[in-house]
Structure formats: C-alpha cells, structure tokens
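Minimal example, chain plus calcium ion.
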Amino acid sequence: MSKISTIILAAGKGTRMPSSRPKALQTVLGEAMISHVYHAVKQLSANIWTVIGHGADEVSAHINKAFGEKAFEHCVLQDKQLGTGHAVQCALQKINEILNIKNLPQGTKILVVNADTPLINEDILREFIEKANNIPLAFMSLTLEDPAAYGRVVRMDFDANVNSMPLGSCNFYDANTGSVQGIIEAKDFKKKFPDCEIHEVNAGIYLFDSELLEKLLPQISTANESGEYYLTDIIALAKENSYKIEAISLGSSSLLLGVNNPLDLHLAEKFMQEEETKKHMKAGVIIHAPESVRISPLATIKPGVELFGPCEIYGQSYIDKDTIIESHCYINNTHISEACTIRSFCHFEDAIIANSALIGPYARLRPKTVLADNVRIGNFVEIKKSTVGKGSKINHLSYIGDSLVGSDVNIGAGCITCNYDGKNKHQTIIGDNAFLGSDSSFVAPVKIGKNALIGAGSVITHDVPDDSLAIARQKQSILKKVVIGSDSKK
Ligand code: UD1
Ligand code: CA
C-alpha cells in the first residue's frame, strides 16, 4: 500500500463540550483524542497535516510535545472555523505553499480524518484504505440505531438526484444497496425529510484523489442550516461530476464513534477501557476488578503482572513480569521492572524503577526519579529528579529532591533535602552506606560521605566526610522547672 498524505481536522470549537480545553485535547485513557488519531494514522501516512484553530496554541504545543517538531511544523491554522470543507481547503493551500507547488502530484491520495474519533486504529484504517484505494472518493460509514447528529448517507437509484427529490418523501435505500448520492447533515436532513430516517451515517473518515479534491472543494457553498462549508457536500458534487464514489462499511461501528459531548467521551473511554483490559488479560496479565482498571493503549504490561483495581496506568508506561500493583495507584509514563511490589495509593510520573523494589503505600515519584534494584520507598515519601542506589531505604515521611543517593543508604523518618534557595535548585549527594538519622535536613548543595552517620534532628549545611559522625543540633539542656503562677512564699 502506497503511503498517503493525511489531514486531521482539529480546529473546531466543540460547542457541545462546554470546557475551556479544546475538544481535540480532551483525554481518553489519559491520552488526548488528537493523539489517539495521530497514532492511528502515523504508520500509514507519508506526512500528516493537522488543521488547528480553536485553542490553536494549546493544540500545536501538545502536538509538538507528543510528536515532535515536524508534526508541529505541519500544523495548519484555520483562522475562522467556517466548516470542515473550509478546513480541508486551508490544509491544501498550506501543503502547496510548503511544497512550493500549484497542485499536488497526480495520483496523490489524501486521507481526511476528524480528530474527534479517538477509537479508530491503524488496522481499521488500513482495511479501509485497501478497499478505497482505486476509488476517487470513498468514506467510511456505520449503521446506528440512533443516527443522532451524524451526517446521513443517502442511497437511491443510480440515476436519482437527492436535490430534485420531492421534500418529505423517503425513497432511500439501506446500507449496501442502491447508489450513494451524497451525505446530508443531520440538521438539514431533519428539516428536509422530517418524517424519514436513515441509519447509515458518515464516520468522518475519507480517502480522496487529490485532483478531485482540488477541483470540487472550491465549489462547496454555505447554503445549509449551519451556514458552514460542509466537506460532506463534496460527495453529491462528485456524483454530479460522474466520479465513482463509495461508502465503505467495515462492521465494527464502535471504533468509529464520534465524540461531541461529555456522554460521547465517556462511552468512547468505556469502550477503549474494556478493550484494553480484555487484551491484557488474554495475554496473561492478572487483573482484579478490571472494570476499574484504566490502561492506556500506549502502555506495555507483561504477562504475569498482577493489577488490582481501581488503578490508572497511562502514557508509555512499562510494567514487567511478576510485579504487583495494588489498588488506587496512578502510574504515568513510568518504567517498572520485574518483581516489584507497588502498594496502594502510589502516584508515579516519568520515573524508572529497577527490579524487586517495594514501594508505598502512599509514595510519590515525580519526574526523573530513578530507583535501582531492591530499593524500598515507604509511606508519604516524595522523590523528585533523584537517583537512589541499590538496596537503599527511604521508609517514612521524607522529601528527596535533586539528589544522588548511593547504595545501601538508610534515610530515617522525616528527612528532607532542602534543594531550593528561592531561586535555584541545588544537589544533595549521599554516599554509599550512609545512615541519616530521623528528622534531619540537608541544605543543598551538600555532600554526605560514604558510611557517614548523621545524628537525628540535624540540620546539615556543610559537607560530611566519609566514615564520620555529624551532629548539627542544639545540645540538650536540663534546667530547673519553673511553674508559672506558683507563689514561692507559700
Ligand atoms: C461531522 C460530519 C458528519 C459526520 C460526523 C462524524 C461534516 C460537515 N459533518 O459532523 O457528516 O457524521 O462528523 O463524526 O463534516 N473542524 C475543523 N474546522 C471547522 C469545523 C470542524 O477543523 O471549521 C473539525 C472539528 O474539530 C472536528 C471535525 O472537524 O474534529 C468534525 O467537526 P464536527 O463539528 O465535530 O462535525 P460533526 O457535526 O460531528
Ligand atoms: Ca464530531
């Protein structure tokens, strides 16, 4: 299959999703909808153009972070959201501008995908493209009991013309019969044919010959109920111009669900959540209460892992065999190696954990935390941008930030690295086998030598040499007890 140019439409306001976040960035299992679509088309596309508009800065920043600079440079601004047809027109203009050409090379295939179809995947797109490859205009359709706000796929006799059909008559054919005449958007359909219904609807995924697109897009008008340039009007135009058109239905309707409002978002997430947990259980991951376990499709979980719901595993997390994740954990972009036990209520982000670690309950690992084999991290411990060596223990109530902790170190309850001076962050280095007494603070930059012993309650402001004992606290005094208000004469 030859690679194609893909245009993702993500400029719309999402008026039915009342949220200040652009609709394309609403998440499904921790991943923005636009990212799901981008992942689905990535392997199939020679290049990907994303049309942005509403919340353009936020959406393009997301694309830059998630998919890199080239993806960012291929964002096309649709200044005013005048409709899906106009969005594609903006993309074609930008492609020609960047490639410095007047028209796309003959034979170019253009895949257009709505950004609000987060369940689509590479397999279904591949199947669609294979079926559609020799047709100048094809789109994916699905059949729904309630066609709701989807565009209706109009099928009639080959020679019929939907525009000359008497208003109100319902001479439509079912899916896979008759000949596709066009797509009528829901609002227009209800107005024109109030007593009719069509259950075959448009999924918002199209494959075009670029010549057809370049020729017919400029002919689209705004003469419809919404006053927008509908991309879907191109179907009837193509029919009038005697192009071959086809609506391709591939059975699995759920994957084509469009997300327009909070309920759609929930349904999409529920579907993907069930699919993901089922997939992992079939592959040998033990999942307790799977209905409450949310795993991103980007995550890798090896057979033999045991998960207890509820928990969330997002991003490119990786969990290796024989690891147990107890309930109520949030794990994002984190690598957890073999045979670790993660107790309940842990929160990890962008961390790396080597083999046989015992972590939690209630531990927080922030970005750039790296834990070596056999590390133990206990309750109410927060670690940020720090490396902890083999066999070290930080068991209770500590904050370790910007630190290098050696191996077999014992950090007592309530130890704090004071890494921030109000302007800059500084490093704390703790040598192998050091023992840090409880409730000590380490004012960075500071270095604790190997085998050093720190007395409990110390505030360490200077380096401590290897093999030495440091105590930095007020000496204890024993004074006579004075009872306030007592009369000494009595
Ligand atoms: C669209 C289709 C409808 C189809 C449905 C499938 C049109 C006119 N209608 O309807 O036939 O059944 O998708 O889910 O295409 N967008 C832009 N610029 C704009 C307007 C929209 O980029 O000016 C983007 C949106 O961000 C969205 C996509 O295009 O990702 C679809 O727009 P939306 O308003 O959701 O269209 P629907 O009404 O769902
Ligand atoms: Ca939509």
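The chain has two domains: 4-256, 282-470. The CA atoms of residues 107 and 364 lie 54 Å apart.
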